[in-house]
Design goal:
With 527 residues, the chain is α/β, with parallel strands linked by helices. The protein contains 17 helices and 22 strands.
């Protein structure tokens, strides 16, 4: 059996390869070289990148088999997430891998600017002992303004509190309680700009944050302020900052990230009081190892068809261990629904009943959609593009839960309304210590039939000889029946058969005609 192919497009830690394990064919290329990258993507299942490889729409389109883009780091500026989602490609990153490293670099830059470490180092190595020129300032009792109190900003605030600093923070999405946990006081942005002796930026790069610390903001700061940006280039306007430093309106800065990278020229480089580093926030052995291991595990999960906690374009959230066994069942129910209905619904209700509702089962909406479209569209259906397919087909989905399940501990029903108003429903459950997947209802008929790769479902007017006729035709075609059940309502009945091999449409038509079936469905759950 051919192994899935994983392309490593940038240098990653050896631990990444070890975490992938022996189940993959691993290839390498220089992802920064487009002429090398695009052909390398043609037949790979996953690509692992850092910041130099641009996975834009062109690159994603080149990866005809691509299922996963894994960014060994936090930012996704170099990945077109929308194009990936449209193509059904999962995008994963390592959101917590470098938070300690990034926080420590921000503090290092802050200390370096406070004590003029970089120019003093350069002068001494050049033979000049300039003790008086490079005197600095203490952190004790100074005010630091943390712009963005996410995971990295919170770590910075917590650590700077230990220096005896007063910590204030601006973050419209943070609560006072969260700020209090790290010893910070929430204030407005203008107040932070006016009060801070040091300002350190820890925001994501969005249309709203680009240029946030620009000419206007810099007109409101103390002339003694020192500004740190180890978050994303462009949040601090580099030209405006350089002018403020040159004019004595800002005392210094520590900059690790730039609007355009790589960059070797900037007006900031002209000033001794500005410390610059080439985007080193995640450049520690520990962060690279954590990031590589994290995305390698995500790739393994994704290529085995599992939901991935760190997928940025899959709305799955936390999945309890008790909920996971039901995922394959619900996906199969989606496929059974489409087969029975012969169409996709305009409205789909995922009804979950029983003890399982003590947990968050919202992921089953996503899983049901994946099953619903698997046998409907030509392109592969994934957890990524299933919601897109539903939106394109005006299919609305909602989750309904009830702690009471009736005859079973847990039952999941997919109930859909077709465009002509017809209502179709299929129900399933897991039974016994082996968690056997069973179909327990179709359109109001009660059943208890194990799900199998090949099944037949037919509704007919109840009368003697029907099952015998079906068995005879299948036997003549050398197709064995593995199990069967009949459920009746008044003078109508439904038969469900588990068969050992696929039934052709021609044979299905022959059986349907022989029993004068009201409806006849062939279900194929074989991958």
């Amino acid at each position: 059996m051919t192994k899935p192919v994983v392309l490593i497009a940038e240098e990653l830690s050896p631990a990444t390869i070890e975490a992938l394990g022996p189940d993959f064919e691993v290839r390498t290329c220089d992802g920064a070289n487009r002429d090398e990258l695009l052909p390398a993507l043609v037949d790979v299942d996953a690509v692992l990148i850092r910041s130099a490889t641009k996975m834009d729409a062109e690159a994603i389109g080149a990866g005809r088999r691509l299922k996963v883009i894994a960014r060994a780091g936090v930012g996704l500026d170099n990945v077109d997430v929308q194009a990936a989602t449209q193509a059904g490609v999962m995008v994963v990153n390592a959101p917590t891998s470098n938070i300690t490293s990034a926080a420590e670099l921000a503090i290092a830059l802050l200390l370096a600017t406070a004590r003029n470490i970089a120019p003093a180092n350069q002068a001494l190595k050049g033979g000049a002992w300039k003790r008086s020129k490079y005197s600095g300032v203490e952190l004790l009792d100074k005010t630091v303004g943390v712009v963005g109190l996410g995971r990295i900003g919170a770590l910075v605030a917590e650590r700077l509190k230990g220096f005896g600093m007063k910590v204030i923070a601006y973050d419209p999405y943070a609560s006072p309680a969260k700020a209090g946990l790290v010893g910070a006081q929430l204030v407005g942005l203008d107040e932070l700009l006016a009060q801070s002796d040091f300002i350190t930026v820890h925001l994501p790069k969005t249309p709203e944050t680009i240029g946030l610390i620009g000419e206007d903001a810099l007109s409101k700061v103390k002339p003694s302020v020192r500004i740190i940006n180890a978050a994303r280039g462009g949040i601090v306007d580099e030209a405006a900052l350089a002018r403020a430093v040159a004019e004595g309106r800002v005392a210094g800065a520590g900059i690790d990230v730039f609007a355009t990278e790589p960059t070797t020229e900037s007006p900031l480089f002209e000033h001794e009081s500005v410390v610059v580093t080439p985007h080193l926030g995640a450049s520690t052995e520990e962060a690279q190892e954590k990031a590589g291991i994290s995305v390698a595990k995500s790739v393994r999960l994704a290529l085995s068809g599992e939901l991935v906690p760190d997928a940025v374009n899959v709305s799955s959230g936390y999945i309890a261990e008790e909920v996971r066994p039901g995922i394959p069942l619900v996906e199969k129910l989606g496929r059974v629904f489409t087969a029975v209905a012969g169409a996709t619904p305009a409205q789909l209700d995922v009804e979950v009943r029983g003890e399982i509702t003590e947990h968050d089962v919202s992921v089953w909406k996503l899983v049901a959609l994946k099953g619903l479209f698997t046998d409907v569209v030509e392109d592969p259906v994934t957890y990524v593009n299933a919601p897109v397919l539903a939106e394109q087909r005006d299919c609305q989905v909602r989750l309904l839960t009830d702690a009471a399940a009736g005859d079973f501990r847990n039952v999941t029903t997919l109930r859909g309304t077709l465009s002509d108003g017809t209502i179709v429903s299929v129900s399933g459950t897991l039974t016994g210590p082996k968690m056997v997947e069973k179909l327990v209802g179709i359109n109001g008929y009660d059943l208890e039939v194990p799900l199998s790769d090949h099944m037949l479902v037919f509704e007919y007017s109840d009368r003697p000889g029907i099952i015998g006729a079906v068995g005879r035709i299948l036997g003549d075609s050398d197709i064995n029946i593995g199990g069967m059940q009949v459920s009746r309502q008044a003078d109508q009945a439904i038969g469900v058969l588990n068969v050992d091999s696929a039934v052709s449409s021609q044979l299905a038509g022959e059986i349907a005609a022989a029993v004068d079936a009201k409806s006849f469905t062939v279900i194929n759950l074989q991958d």
